[in-house]
Amino acid sequence: MPGLGCRTFLKILQTHTPPELYTEPPRALAALGLKEVLVTAIKNPDWAGIEQDLSWLGQPNNAVITINDAAYPPLLKEIADPPPLLFVRGDGQLLGLPQLAMVGSRNPSALGKETAFSFAKSLSQQGWVITSGLALGIDAASHQGALAAGGLTIAVAGTGLDRVYPAQNKDLANAIVASGAIVSEFPPGTTAKANHFPRRNRIISGLCQGLLVVEAAKQSGSLITARMALEQNREVFAIPGSIHNPLARGCNALIRDGAKLVETTQDILEELSQYIQYDAIEAPVMGQSMLDLEQQKLLNLVLFSPTSIDSLVENAGFSVETVSSLLLLLELQGYIEAIPGGCYTRIK
Fold this sequence. Notes:
Elements: H1 6-13, H2 18-23, H3 26-31, H4 36-43, H5 47-57, E1 62-66, H6 74-77, E2 85-90, E3 99-103, H7 110-125, E4 129-132, H8 138-148, E5 153-156, H9 170-179, E6 181-184, H10 196-206, E7 210-213, H11 221-231, E8 235-238, H12 249-256, E9 260-261, H13 265-271, H14 293-301, E10 307-308, H15 309-316, H16 320-332, E11 336-339, E12 343-346
Helix pairs in contact: 7-8, 8-9, 10-11, 14-16
């Protein structure tokens, strides 16, 4: 309904049940402080939209949870503006389990994606439900890490659940529904709009005991989610990065402002130990295959920040041809990646 936000919706529910509201005369509705356009909408419901919702709800694995339902996640109910309705595909009972949110860049580095995948996999194995936003990049890698562990994952969407955004993640969305859940406050038929995603982000943080930012630029939606998490009194964690990496500046800023610096999953598990009992685990580490002496020497010279070929030739004492050949081998094995400007950066 036009002009009806979560706060107004919840305020009305404190005094009226839905059936009572719809039987009130216009004058009584106006006395509740409702604007004329909203009063008119209440007296003239969108029956086509209602039928569309009911049709969607009649399909397998689809459900709706109201804020008064026992299945409504208690942590989400505590935030300042909880969504009155949650549309769910998959297992809605998961919404009440201990969750860790993971967010980050939509265009991460190879190392960022690998880190998100490894952390999600490890944390999932310890019983945490991994929650994220189904976006490209860090979100997708986090969902995939949980699925790879045979664990549980929840995606919070910024559209109606009759569609997948972005469309590239359709197969991932289906996999999540099969062993987890996708949730949205937006009814079926709702398309992707820019203002929907900050609203989605408050649900991501609101569902969870803690939030981990893996890679984020200084100005990014991930930092908005982190600020919401702090306002909701959630634990905020961030993985630090090189001062030369623009994708690390957001995480470094969060740490400077009080987020907990995370190097291993144990850093998170120790902080949230009151929620789940688990055994001590080894931190996820990036595998390193056997390298010959020349490869290892050159790898040791590639920094975790932009490193030029000229400096590698000078410091390694190899010819340009040898350095180029070794760089190609190291890149194929996943140790380094090429970046704009004819430079390389180490990723593991």
